[in-house]
Amino acid sequence: MATGSIWQALGWTIVAAVLLQVAYFVLTTWLVSKRRDLEKTGADKDTARVPPSPIRPTRNRDGRTH
Fold first, then answer.
1. Please, are residues 42 and 36 in contact by the beta-carbon 8 Å criterion?
2. 27-41, pLDDT tens digit by residue?
3. Rounded to whole angstroms, how far apart are CA atoms 62 and 9?
4. How would you write 1-66 as a 3-class SS string?
5. 2 vs 55 pLDDT, higher one
6. Is the dihedral of CA 56, 58, 63, 66 positive or negative?
7. For the chain, how long is the longest CA-to-CA vector?
């Protein structure tokens, strides 16, 4: 059974790391630009201001609420 070179493995590791970084940068840039476009058009104003759900009272160990 033959094994590969340590230098070849290191090279592929560097290639994979660079590809992951480039993909992360592209995705982040795309998400920021998409959000900026939504803010300019005002398309998300209805969904951005969703009222919070009512908070249920917490209970102590004895069952009483505060």
1. no
2. 999 999 888 877 777
3. 61
4. CCCCCHHHHHHHHHHHHHHHHHHHHHHHHHHHHHHHHHHHHCCCHHHHCCCCCCCCCCECCCCCEC
5. 55
6. negative
7. 70
Separation CA 40–CA 54 (nearest Å): 31
- Confirm if 33 and 27 have CB atoms less than 8 A apart: no
Identify whether the C-beta of residue 43 lies closer than 8 Å to the C-beta of residue 34.
no
Please tell me the distance from the alpha carbon of residue 43 to that of residue 66, in angstroms, as a whole number. 40
What is the mean pLDDT of the segment spanning 12-19?
97
pTM over 0.90: no
Go through the chain and tell me how many residues it has: 66
